[in-house]
Specification:
The chain has 513 residues and is of the alpha+beta class. The chain has 16 helices and 19 strands. The protein has one domain: Thiolase/Chalcone synthase (Peroxisomal Thiolase, Chain A, domain 1). Bound molecules: acetyl coenzyme *A.
Length: 513
């Protein structure tokens, strides 16, 4: 934990165990059921729910934009962990939801820091489709491991509103924000140098119409690019690990959990299958005694990986063969994605949060989590996290994990909106997006306590925000609370705000511009 004294001694040693110390997830308070969407869109039953593997899709009304999402998630992370805004030395936002071509979301977030007097914060916004959050994360890790580090935390904020025009891409929308506190001696430690990268120029998904929130998307090409980048990153990651650890070879066995950027859950299941196919073609961990490891794949020995993207027989055989690996290593990562949809930049980290929320502490300790990040255009990376061995009560891992234990309840407590109402709200959003002299019309009542929302856009496009107050306080101490770095230590017991089922009051709002 950083404080003023230790900050002075930082440069004398390489920081230990740099990684994620705390996480906060925010998703919209309303969703549409994918079964309802299937009926309303007139597609065959099961296309979205089985074909894409999606249950529910979160969405934002005109009350929320990228600034409000990020304000909400940053403020909640700070509150839940009882942190002073002075403890943050770097703040970087990864997003592809652009509402201003010059002013960054990061500068909007600086309003939250104003009272603390802390304006000494490196970092701005980072953009490349769903990859911006990963790039922001790498920048933050690099900052902590550099001569520029001043001993304070870095905060990485990922956020997006993923909306598509009417048509076959629309059910793969979603939205949300996720903030991560990065520092040394972390419970989720990034493995140094274990990063496989692949970057390339393609037009698979892009946003050339700056007046629209909708992307131009070549859906089939984007899926091929995603799987191709996965192949490339897996090889690159494996080569780097082999070189640095002098290991023989890396297979899927290297990872206890595997999280992926999740445009829709079925693609993730296909991704696990793709990794198994890579292992098979590399002849890694040849068949187990009963010959079941690559059961059903032998006839595909020697095929060229790049020729197989559209081969449904291979895909089917690999899905069958990798079923158990998917169930044990990846399925738990799909909790948020299945219920919220594609959040774009936060998607991968929502997968990580889902694993933490769905797994017992005993099953997390000392485990290795692989992560695959993909952003169209394209930029992709595979990297890994090692979970700490200390899961004792009050440890950092314990605090991080328990802070996410309410995820399922929070998902359950959202409001379900009919497909018709969803379409009406989307049409309204489409018409009013980017208007000035505009007062949003979306309901405030359904927003969760503690949510920032857009209250007004003035004649110069300047945006004003208010916050629904937090209520229903619960006394929960936070071990991240370090009195040495708190601007004003809590008077009595520290409190953690509990937002579930809270009563709503709208007359005590905090205005932010
Ligand atoms: N029951 C069960 N399965 C069904 C049914 C049914 N009734 N109907 C169709 N399906 C299956 C299809 O067989 C198909 O399965 P497959 O992918 O295993 O072949 C699946 O459902 C999807 O059906 P398609 O007809 O292929 O879907 P469509 O072409 O209409 O759209 C797509 C899918 C391309 C993903 C579209 O939603 C899209 O463009 N989304 C946005 C782009 C995207 O998310 N790309 C991913 C990477 S980039 C990123 O993250 C933004």
């Amino acid at each position: 934990m950083a404080n003023n004294t230790t900050m002075l001694n930082r440069k004398s040693h390489w920081p230990n165990d740099v990684g994620i110390i705390a996480m906060e997830v925010y998703f919209p308070a309303q969703y549409v059921d994918q079964r309802d969407l299937e009926v309303s869109d007139g597609v065959s039953t099961g296309k979205y729910t089985i074909g894409l593997g999606q249950s529910k899709m979160g969405f934002c009304t005109d009350r929320e934009d990228i600034n409000s999402l990020c304000l909400t998630v940053v403020q909640r992370l700070m509150e839940r962990n009882q942190l002073s805004y002075n403890t943050i030395g770097r703040l970087e936002v990864g997003t592809e939801t652009i509402i201003d071509k010059s002013k960054s979301v990061k500068t909007v977030l600086m309003q939250l820091f104003k009272k603390s007097g802390n304006s000494d914060l490196e970092g701005v916004d980072t953009l490349n489709a769903c990859f911006g959050g990963t790039s922001a994360l790498f920048n933050s890790i690099n900052w902590i491991e550099s001569s520029s580090w001043d001993g304070r935390y870095a905060m990485v904020v990922t956020g997006d509103i993923a909306v598509y025009a009417k048509g076959n891409a629309r059910p793969t929308g979603g939205g949300g924000a996720l903030a991560m506190l990065i520092g040394e001696n972390a419970p989720l430690i990034f493995e140094r140098g274990h990063r496989g990268i692949h970057m390339e120029h393609v037009y698979d998904f892009f946003k050339p119409n700056l007046e629209s929130e909708y992307p131009v998307v070549d859906g089939k090409l984007s899926v091929q690019c995603y799987l191709g980048a996965l192949d490339k990153c897996y090889k690159c990651y494996s080569d780097k690990v082999k070189k640095s650890c002098l290991k023989e070879a890396i297979s899927l066995d290297h990872f206890d959990f595997m999280c992926f950027h999740t445009p829709y859950c079925k693609l993730v299941q296909k991704s696990v299958a793709r990794l198994i196919f890579n292992d098979f073609l590399q002849d890694l961990n040849p068949d187990t005694n009963d010959g079941s490891r690559y059961a059903g794949l032998s006839e595909y020995r020697g095929v060229n990986l790049e020729d197989t993207f559209h081969n449904k027989d291979i895909e089917k055989a690999c899905m069958k063969c990798s079923k158990e690996q998917f169930e044990t290593k990846t399925k738990s990562s799909l909790l948020i994605a299945n219920n919220v949809g594609n959040m774009y930049t936060p998607s991968l980290y929502g997968g990580l949060a889902s694993v933490l929320a769905s797994t017992s502490l005993a099953d997390l300790v000392n485990k290795r989590i692989g992560l695959f990040s993909y952003g169209s255009g394209l930029a992709a990376a595979m990297f890994s996290i090692k979970v700490t061995s200390d899961a004792s009560d009050g440890s950092k891992l314990y605090t991080l994990k328990t802070s996410l234990d309410d995820l399922q309840d929070r998902l359950n407590n959202r409001t379900c909106v009919s497909a018709e109402e969803f379409t009406t709200l989307m049409d309204h959003r489409e018409r009013t997006h980017h208007l000035c002299n505009y007062t949003p019309e979306g309901s405030i009542n359904d927003l969760c306590p503690g949510t920032y929302y857009l209250s007004q856009v003035d004649h110069m496009h300047r945006r004003q925000y208010q916050r629904k107050p937090l209520v229903d306080f619960e006394q929960i101490p936070s071990p991240l609370n370090d009195e040495a770095i708190l601007a004003s230590p809590p008077a009595k017991k520290p409190v953690r705000n509990h937002i579930k089922n809270a009563m709503l009051e709208t007359d005590n709002q905090i205005a932010i511009k």
